[in-house]
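User: Show me a protein chain along with its predicted structure.
Assistant: Here is one chain, sequence first, then C-alpha cells.
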Amino acid sequence: MVVGDIHEVNLSTSSFEKIITENRLYVDKSKFIENFLNTPSDAQIIARQRRLGKSMNMSMLRCFLTDQKDNRRLFDRLYIRNSPVWPQANSSPVFYFDFKDLGPTLFKSQIQDAIKLQIKPYLEASCNDYKELYESWLKRGPEDATGLKVMTQIAFNATGKKSYILIDEYDSLMMKTTVKKIYNIIRSYLTDFLSSGFKGNDFLEKGLMTGVMRITHEGMLSGLNNLDTFDVFSDKVYSSDYGLTEDEAKEVCDLTGLSLDIARQWYNGIKIGGVDIYNTYSVLCAVSKKEISNYWGMSGTLDRVKSLITPYEKSELLMLLDKGAILETKINQRIGPQMLKKDCDESALYSLLVQSGYLSLDSWHGEKSYGAVSIPNLELASVWREFIFNDVLKSKRINSFFKHLNELDALASDVEKFLDCMFLKFASFDLPATEYKRPDNTSYKKIPELYYHHIVFTALIFLETTLGYKSILSNRESGDGRYDVWIDMNKVMVVFEFKSGAKGEKAETLAKRASKQVKDNRYGAEMGRPVIAVGCGFALDGSIKVSCLRIEY
C-alpha cells in the first residue's frame, strides 16, 4: 500500500518519522515489524543489497518499539495499526547503532559515545548499584567491549523490561578495512562487543543486525550460536519486506504514471529467496525525475569488484549480457572480507556479486554451494557494460573507425587497433579454449568464436554514439546464412564476421576467410545497398588481423 503525496519523493533520508510526518510518498513496509516480532530468533541478521530500504525499515522498527516517545500516530495509515502486535508499540527500551560512519581508528570511542547518549534516560531512573555499574564500565574506557550488556542491564533495572538492540550496516566497517592489522583489531573487538550483547544476555528481548554481506567466515559472529541469518540464499521470512513486490510496483506505477513494463525491464529481477523484487531506490528515482536511467549504478561504486575480477571472469560476466543468459557456478554462502582479494576464489567473488546485488541468484543448491546467476534487468546490464568496457573504450587508441568506410585498408587498420586494444585488456590468452573434432576424428583446440562475437558486439553497442550508426543486430538470417554482426550506416551496411583458429592457423588467413564468407553467403543482399564485409581473424597465439571487402550485389 502506498501512502503520502505521490508527487513528493524524498530520496535523501532514511528517517521513517520524517517521511511520514512530511507526507512524502511511502510504500508501506510495516508488516516487516510483525515478521520481526513473530520470528522466534533472539538474534537475527538480515543481509540485503544497497538501496532496498534496510535503513528505512530499521528506522521504522525503532520508531515503533521505543518507549522514549509516543510515535503511534505515525502508523495510523499502515498495515501494522491493525496487526496483533500493535499493543507492543512504544513499549520497550530500544538501542540503535549505525556502523556506516564508524572510522577504523576511532570506532571504539564512537561506539562508547553512542552508548553514553542512549543510556542517559535509563541511568537517571536506575538505582545506585546500576549507576556504579555504569561508572565502572565508563572508567574502563573505549577498549571495554561489554557496553551492550551494561546498557540492557541498566534499562531493565529502570523499566523492568528487556531491550531491543538494532545495528544497521553491521558489516560496513569490516568490509571497507583492507589493512590486515587494523582489520584484526576491529574483528576482535566487534566479536566481543556483539557476543556480550547478543549471546546469553538475559536482558535482551531481541537483536537485529542488517547489512549487505553475511560475514561469518572469519569468526566475527562465531560465538553467536543463537543467530539466525536471512539473506538472498534462503530467506523466506522477509522476502517481501525489502525492495518492491510486483503488486507494490504496480500500485506505484498506476499512481504516478510510470510504465510498469518499462520499470519491470529496468529495475526488476533480483531474487530474494526465489522471489523477484524491484529496486526501491531506482523505481522512486524514476518516479521523482520522470526519467528511466541507471540510478542504482550511479549511487555506488564497483571499485572493490574491479580489484577482484580476472580477465577470464570478466569474459564470463560479459556473456551474461546476452538476454536470458545464466551462469552456473560455485558460490560460497559465507565469506569474510579478507577472502576478497586479487585472484580470490571464484566462489567468493560470485558470493560478493550476488549478495551486493550486482547479479541475481536464480537458483541455489545449498548442499553443493552451487547456484545459477544472471544479469536480471537493463539497469544492471548498463552497470556491467560500463564496468567491462569503460576503461577499454575510452582509450585514445579507440576512435570512430567508420570514418574510413571508403578506404578499406585504413578501415581494416583501425578495426585491428580497436580489437588489439580491447583484447589486450581482456587478456585473450585467458579465454577458455574448447576441444573440437575433425572429420577424421582427430581433435584440436580453439577459443570459441562466440566469445569474440559477444565481446565485440557488446562493445559496439557501447560505442553507438561514437560510431554514429542507425541500428545494430546480431546473429540473424540474411542472404544464404546467418551473419555475426550487422550495422546499418544508412548508405552502406557493415557486416562483421569472426573466425577463431586452432594451433598453426594464421590470423590473416582466418580474416580473409571471414570476409569471403560474407560475400559467398550474400549477407545483406536483400537490403539493396552496398555491404562492407569486416572479417576478423583471431589466432590461438593472440594475434589479430582484419580483412575488409566492399560488396555490390
